[in-house]
Every structure is written in structure tokens, then in C-alpha cells.
Amino acid sequence: MSTTYNPPKVWTWDDENGGQWASINRPTSGARFERDLSKGEHALQLYSLATPNGQKVTILLEELLLAGVKEADYDAYAISISDSDQFSSGFVAVNPNSKIPALMDYSEDEPVRVFESGHILLYLAEKFGHFLPSNHAEKTEVLNWLFWLQGSAPYLGGGFGHFYAYAPEKFEYPINRFTMETKRQLDLLDKQLEGKTYIVGDEYTIADIAIWPWYGNVVLGLAYNAAEFLDVESYPNVMRWAKLIAKRPGVERGRIVNRTWGEEWEMLADRHSASDIDSVLAKVPK
Ligand SMILES: N[C@@H](CCC(=O)N[C@@H](CS)C(=O)NCC(=O)O)C(=O)O
After folding, report:
1. What does the alpha-carbon distance between residue 141 and residue 127 come to, in Å, rounded to a whole number?
2. DSSP element (H, E) containing 103
3. What are the pocket residues of ligand 1 if the criterion is a CB atom closer than 6 Å to any ligand atom?
4. pTM of the model
5. Which numbered atom of ligand 1 lies nearest the CA of 53?
6. Which of 2, 65, 125, 138 is the most exposed, having the fewest neighbouring CB atoms within 10 Å of its CB?
7. Domains along the sequence of the chain with CATH
């Protein structure tokens, strides 16, 4: 019997495809139920989860706070995407695309909603004047890499990660296709980081903050359990950069916010103040 799939004339939704995320996926958008979001005291309200896209934003917020920007203090609420929290009416009002992260800024004349993780980084970097150079040419290069990440990471996460780690069976064709692309991306980053401390040179920017949660986590063995499979040691510049960034206090703090899995010293579902993070990090084994 052939195992080749012959697409029907018109595709119809089969909710029993067995994949890890099958229960939440539907071919329609919009709210599935009525529920308001929680709201804390700070001007910035983040609704997120510590996936790489979520980590980008909490890392930037923690970096801003450590840089002395008090106005960057925030409340962060965990959105359980496996429990369909992203389909509540409250969440959909902040992000009609029903994906974390989503941010509300109540410090402006009218409340501002911001969605798409790359845009949230740009919004916060511009608002507070940090981690984005003011020089036009340098800013443009940072944005080149920020937009590169936003376009490329779905091949790593939705492509490689999905088929290597989450799909109900190991299928050779998509794993080959997306491993090829992931390794091409790692090779690109390795060349870009040759002779540079950070993605665009000597300055740590939102390009690093966007790229590290994806490619840094993968090469450090913190995503998809794929470090050996991808032969990450063959990208020495990426490895050096990933380890350097992992040690930054803002990264150590931001990566655990809205994390609802893992060890007790790296898990903080909701964050309302710096001390919430301090008490979790105090449990890190010495
Ligand atoms: N392009 C979006 C992607 C966000 C995204 O894919 N979020 C995932 C978690 S990493 C999500 O919320 N998935 C829930 C769903 O698909 O229902 C961004 O960068 O913000």
C-alpha cells in the first residue's frame, strides 16, 4: 500500500491529526470564549509564555530595568496556550492573531496594544531609547537582523522543531528539509558573528535579544534536544555568543518569566515585581 498522501479537491479540517498541538489548532481565527484578561498595577501589562517568542520580550524588559529604566516595570501573566488561553475575548482584543506575546501599554494618552514579538522589541527599544542605536546606518543593520529573525525562526520552530520534536511520527522528508534550512541559518549566524562580540558588532541590541531565545537555546541544548543532531559545535562563533548572552543577568531573569515548566529555580508563572524573580533565582543550585 502506498503511504503517499493524495490531497482531496477541497481540504477539510480533521481535528484528530494526532500532533502535539492538534487540540488547539483550528482553521479559523477569533475569540472562542468570553473572558477578560487580568490587569496589574504597572503601565506595561504583558500576556505571554516563556517560549522563545515570549522570552524575547521578558529579556528586553529585564535588561531595561537593569539599565535603570524604572518605567519598564511590568506585570506579566502566563498565557497557557495548550489550555487555549490565547482564544479568550480579552486576549484576542490585544492580539487578534491569538499568539503570545501580547502587550498593553497604559502609559500613553490612550491604551496602546502591541503584538508580534519583533514589533514589541522595537516598540520598547524606541520608547525607552535603549538597545537600538540612534545612528541611522547602525539602526538599519539591527533592524535587518531583527526582521531576519522574525522571518527565519518559523523555519526553526514551526519547521525543524515541529517535525523533529513534536510531530506524531518522524517523517524523513520534512526533517531533512528543515534541518537543511536550520543548519544554513546557523552557518549564516556563525559567519555574521566571526570577529564580533554581538550580532551587529560591539553593541548588544534587540537583534541579539530576538535571536538568542531561538538559536542560542538550540545550540545550548535548551530547545528540541537537538544539539547533537545539528552538530552545534561546528558553529563556534554561535556557541561563544550563545554562552556569553546566557550569562547576562537580564537574560537569566527574563528567560524564566511566564515559564510554567522545568525546574523550580527556572519557573515563574506570573511576574509583578523584581522580587518575584529574585525569590525564584534564589533556588538555583549553587
Ligand atoms: N510571529 C509571532 C509568532 C508568535 C507565536 O508563534 N506564538 C506561539 C508560541 S511561540 C503561540 O502563541 N502559539 C499559540 C497558537 O498557535 O495557538 C511573534 O513573533 O510574536
Report:
1. 19
2. strand 102-105
3. 24, 51, 53, 81, 86, 98-100, 116-118, 150
4. 0.96
5. 10
6. 2
7. 1-131+256-286 (3.40.30.10), 136-248 (1.20.1050.10)
